[in-house]
TrEMBL record:
Residue numbers spanned by region Disordered: 436-461
UniProt GO molecular function: ammonium channel activity
Pfam families on file: Ammonium_transp
Organism: Argiope bruennichi
Name of the molecule in the record: Ammonium transporter
Membrane topology classification: Multi-pass membrane protein
Signal peptide: none
Length: 507
């Protein structure tokens, strides 16, 4: 086995676990299993697509290959004499491909239809594969222009970040996300999961960047060693910047999401030139990437672009800066000529390298956004890409995976509502709707939640007072009242009951 396969396998496993835990920590509990399953889907369907055609589009060299797309290597296999290099390259690039898709899954969290996402994961391989060929093969047109992207700053993270932007815009915000112009970030479902996921990604990035030297023979181990310290220093700079930024913008509080986004954005930013920077330069690159990501998150919220895990800010903003930083800081290397004989603007090399890096950002961003829009647009014609409002309120764990958090093992069944109860709830809904109409601008009415039950055997009385006229409606003991839009009335009803209630819900 090619020696480089070891860090490749290590990196792949770390990223699979890391992204899954990170994203499950950001979402609401009723969606955390679903987002973990989607990370598995990225490997299952994304891996199938990459084996069938993705690798061929990136690295195919048979007749018909050109500067835009490769041909050859479909349904990948290799002869014994070639299998070491071919298969090690394949497994490494497969982890890049699944990473690019996983980035998008975070921005689509909590409202994307699962079947539609499976289709997206399979075909999204194409969106990654072509830029990978442009950047990392001798036939690629960006490679011919001497672009520098050692570990996937543009080919992976920019592709994922810009695709995530389009997906989030097309899916639109989660229900109630920006009601009453509330643009503040939501609390994490599990901060511990998010932090553990960040730690796994953190050490996985060492395999990510060091493995991008494709071996340890000759001078490669020297570049791998530099990549290691540069990667760590970049995350140090990003972490410090995130803590300081949070301290001064949140009244001396150290916000967990700022730290996570800052560290991850710094790691994204360093991937472009990780084997070429000096350690002190890495501190600067990481710090700037961290600040840019943490400024992008509230900007997207103001624009009502709903990204539950901050994928657009971390991978989009971080990668754009990372590509530009190469054109500013990198100096010519003499051992392996990874910089193609070019030098950054701040090193006296003029504008050529920076210009090439800017061109790569524009080309890859445009391709990713257009291709993602077309892919989701076509998928939506066959399978709706967004869950229905009732499904979204109930949560993807229940709707897609039949995971019910309100199960009562002592009763050995899920509670159901009879027709009398449904009629009572209908009266309540109509009264609430009437109160909203007559008392516009007042305090929002309480909403029902069937995901929790009361041990009290007495009925629940609700009083509504529009214009000083009190109306009392008695609800059965199975139903309680809460004040959150995230709870759902139909969480444990049968399909027929859901349909009956959904028809009476106020618009």
């Amino acid at each position: 086995m090619h020696l480089a396969c070891l860090p490749y396998l290590y990196k792949t496993l770390a990223f699979l676990h890391g992204f899954g835990l990170l994203e499950s920590g950001y979402v609401n509990r009723k969606n955390e299993v679903n987002i973990m399953v989607k990370n598995a889907i990225d490997v299952i369907f994304g891996g199938l697509g990459y084996w069938m055609f993705g690798y061929a589009f990136s690295f195919g060299e048979e007749p018909g290959s050109n500067f835009f797309i490769g041909i050859g290597g479909f349904f990948l296999d290799a002869q014994e004499k070639d299998m070491g290099m071919v298969f090690s390259t394949y497994i490494f690039q497969l982890s890049f491909a699944t990473t690019a898709t996983t980035i998008v899954s975070g921005a689509m969290a909590e409202r994307c239809n699962f079947v539609a996402y499976c289709l997206f994961s399979f075909f999204n391989t194409v969106i990654f594969s072509l830029p990978a060929g442009w950047v990392w093969t001798t036939r690629g047109f960006l490679s011919a222009l001497n672009v520098v992207d050692i570990a996937g700053c543009s080919a992976v993270h920019l592709v994922g970040g810009t695709s995530a932007l389009v997906a989030a815009i097309m899916l639109k915000p989660r229900l109630g996300r920006y009601d009453n112009e509330n643009t503040s970030s939501l609390s994490l479902g599990s901060p511990t999961n998010a932090l553990v996921g960040m730690f796994m990604l953190w050490w996985g990035w060492l395999g990510f960047n060091c493995g991008s030297t494709f071996g340890v023979s000759g001078h490669k181990w020297k570049y791998a060693a530099r990549s290691a310290i540069v990667t760590i220093n970049s995350s140090v700079g990003g972490g410090i910047a995130a803590l300081v930024f949070s301290y001064f913008t949140h009244r001396k509080k150290f916000i967990v999401t700022y730290l996570i986004n800052g560290i991850l954005a710094s790691l994204v930013a360093i991937t472009g030139g990780c084997a070429l920077y000096h350690p002190w330069e890495a501190l600067i690159v990481g710090a700037v990437g961290s600040i840019l990501a943490n400024c992008t998150v509230p900007l997207l919220d103001k624009l009502h672009v709903d990204d539950p895990v901050g994928a657009i800010a971390v991978h989009g903003a971080g990668s754009i800066w990372g590509m530009l930083a190469v054109g500013l800081f990198v100096e010519r290397d003499t051992l392996m000529e990874l910089s193609h004989g070019l030098t950054g603007l701040f090193r006296g090399g003029g504008w050529k390298l920076l210009g090439v890096q800017i061109l790569a950002v524009l080309v890859v961003s445009t391709w990713s956004m257009v291709a993602t829009f077309l892919l989701l647009f076509v998928i939506n014609k066959f399978v709706p890409i967004r869950m229905s409002p009732e499904e979204e309120r109930a949560g993807a764990d229940l709707v897609e995976h039949n995971i019910r958090y309100d199960y009562d093992p002592s009763a050995n069944h899920y509670p159901k509502l009879d027709i009398a109860t449904i009629n009572t709830i209908r009266m309540y809904i109509e009264s609430v709707s009437s109160a909203q109409t007559q008392n516009a601008g007042g305090k929002p009415p309480e909403k029902l939640n069937s995901a929790t039950q009361t041990e009290d055997t007495s009925p629940v009385k609700i009083s509504i007072q529009p214009d000083d006229v009190e109306t009392t409606i008695v609800l059965p003991k199975e139903v309680v009242v809460v004040r959150t839009d995230r709870d759902v009335l139909t969480a444990w009803m049968s399909d027929d009951e859901k349909d009956m209630i959904a028809k009476r819900l106020p618009k």
